[in-house]
Specification:
Chain lengths: 128, 250
């Protein structure tokens, strides 16, 4: 797993972005950028050469699932690993996210250990 | 006299006409009979209207009583706007507390990282000294650095302590917001009671709540689930999410 990779954190709550950013920094990932919903995230993704997307689901503007689907439908972004970190926990939603091509799914409230495990698992599978 | 019984003057009118109708029919006086049947029908209709009028008056009085209820006016004009303000305050108070806590934690982590780096450097050099692999000049430098390190720990640990205290103090939002949430909950409960009364007055039955959300494919965001959520529908922790994803081949 490349610790220098560029990560985009998308969440409408700045506190949650801050928490995720700090947890990622503890895991050795220092190159993070923040966006507050799918609409602001998308232009960043298109221009920024990001290696990993961490997104919330429920956001004003464009929600995380739509962002995921848009990413998967974009020729240049379709292989971007996406981790969803969300309070959405309905089984049908998790299935929907999986079908839309999410790489990992973390439900809030979550722990630093869970976040670390899911990220490691995503990159193990991609690299393996 | 039961409420269903007709008023005596109405009964009297019916009986008089019925007796006369019976006589008219026996005497084959069809014109008179038809006239009497017409009168009976009119009588029936007018008593219906009276009943209807009575019912309308009752509903009208109930609605008046409801709108004269000062609490309803107070709820609408003062308490609901007040509740909106309280909820807004809760959002900003919790937001402040979270940022204050995170900022202190970030700074503390920076301090601790710096301690850690310097301690591990000194530790390395101390080991060299104890295994007698150190020149006198290096030892003097080490001795200076240790002195400086101890000094800085004294000062900076005081700062760490004050940051930790501030983190604790930032948790006071729970008390304040908790009380406000209780006030709003009480108000919502009161409104609920008033609405139930209003429904009772209008005589409507509370129909089964229709499932409004037709997006059953899971694409709609529902927000955080309560811990009491139905386990068949909701994954209540990360393990359940993992199990579900595993069953989908993840």
């Amino acid at each position: 797993m490349n610790k220098d990779m560029k990560i985009l954190i998308v969440d409408d709550f700045s506190t949650m972005r801050r928490i995720i950013k700090n947890l990622l920094r503890d895991l050795g990932f220092n190159d993070t950028t923040e966006a507050d919903d799918g609409q602001t995230a998308l232009p960043l993704l298109k221009s920024g050469k990001f290696d990993f997307l961490v997104t919330d689901w429920n956001m004003p503007g464009m929600d995380g699932l739509t962002l995921l689907k848009t990413v998967r439908a974009d020729e240049n972004l379709k292989d971007l690993p996406v981790l969803m970190v969300t309070a959405e926990a309905k089984r049908e939603q998790i299935v929907e996210a999986a079908q839309a091509g999410v790489n990992g799914y973390v439900v809030k409230p979550f722990t630093a250990v869970t976040l670390k495990e899911k990220i490691e698992k995503i990159f193990e599978r991609l690299e393996g | 006299m039961s409420e269903d019984e007709l008023p005596s003057y109405v009964k009297e009118s019916y009986l008089t006409r019925l007796t006369e109708l019976s006589n008219a029919l026996e005497q084959n006086n069809h014109d008179r009979a038809n006239q009497l049947i017409g009168e009976l029908t009119t009588l029936r209709e007018s008593s219906l209207f009276q009943e209807l009028g009575k019912l309308t008056r009752e509903i009208h009085e109930s609605i008046n009583a409801f709108s004269d209820d000062d609490r309803v006016a107070e709820l609408a004009s003062e308490e609901i706007p007040d509740a909106k303000e309280r909820l807004g305050f809760i959002v900003s108070k919790t937001d402040d507390a979270a940022h204050r806590t995170i900022a202190n934690a970030e700074q503390t982590v920076d301090f601790v990282n710096a301690f850690n780096e310097r301690a591990s450097d000194l530790n390395q050099r101390w080991k060299q000294f104890t295994t007698q692999q150190m020149s006198k000049a290096d030892f003097l430098a080490l001795s200076d650095d240790i002195g400086e390190f101890l000094n800085s720990i004294e000062g900076e640990s005081t700062q760490v302590k004050s940051k930790m205290t501030d983190i604790m103090m930032a948790q006071d939002y729970q008390d304040l917001t908790g009380q406000m949430i209780k006030q709003v909950t009480n108000m919502v409960q009161e409104i609920e009671e008033k609405l139930v009364r209003l429904v009772a007055i209008t005589g409507s039955r509370i129909s089964e709540v229709q499932e409004k959300d037709e997006r059953k494919d899971g694409t709609m965001a529902h927000g955080p689930q309560l811990p009491t959520a139905d386990k068949a529908e909701v994954a209540t922790n990360q393990d359940e999410v993992d199990d579900l994803l595993a069953s989908l081949g993840f």
